[in-house]
Amino acid sequence: MIEDERPQVEDMFEGIPRNKIPWYPIIDYDKCISCGKCVEYCAFGVYEFEEKNGKKKSVVKNPYNCTPVFCRGCEEICPVGAITHPSEEETQKIINRLKEEKA
Ligand code: SF4
Ligand code: SF4
After folding, report:
1. Closest ligand 1 atom to the C-alpha of 83?
2. Mean pLDDT taken over the chain
3. I need a labelling partner for 8 at 20 to 30 A (CA). Which of 45, 65, 67, 93 fits?
4. What are the residue boundaries of the structural domains of the chain, listed by start?
5. Do 66 and 38 form a contact (C-beta atoms < 8 A)?
6. E strands within the chain?
7. 25-102 CATH choice from 3.90.226.10, 3.30.70.20, 3.30.565.10, 3.20.20.70
8. Tens digits of per-residue pLDDT, 29-53?
9. Residue 65 Cα: closest atom of ligand 2
């Protein structure tokens, strides 16, 4: 059996279930050139290549694997600036609200 060598993905972030925090990359397909660098780069398996009609396309397959929250690594390596993330300020507000609800 081949072991999954990816780093462990955290289920929680600061006491909040990770899947309640809307932080993940978004691909602008008008810009994306399907180079695959994001798929290779992200160690957490957020991206996968999908093949449709003989064409390969990078997709955000596991958005909540995007760890740590506020990572922007792939955004920086995309050669055409096709990757963005939500606003840090807005995401932090959501995290704060979720923490308050929990308290
Ligand atoms: S690195 Fe950028 S251009 Fe390359 S596949 Fe990913 S999103 Fe598309
Ligand atoms: S921001 Fe970081 S963890 Fe998230 S998809 Fe990009 S490289 Fe992976």
Report:
1. 7
2. 92
3. 93
4. 25-102
5. no
6. 12-13, 16-17, 26-27, 47-52, 55-60, 83-84
7. 3.30.70.20
8. 999 999 999 999 999 999 999 998 8
9. 3
Which residue's alpha carbon is nearest to atom 6 within ligand 2? 74
**One-letter amino acid of 28:** D
Sign for the CA dihedral angle at 94, 87, 23, 5 comes to: negative
Residues with a CB atom less than 6 Å from ligand 1: 27, 32-38, 58, 78, 80, 82-83
Burial class (CB in 10 A: 0-12, 13-18, 19+), 90: exposed
Torsion of CA 91, 94, 99, 103, to 10 degrees: 170
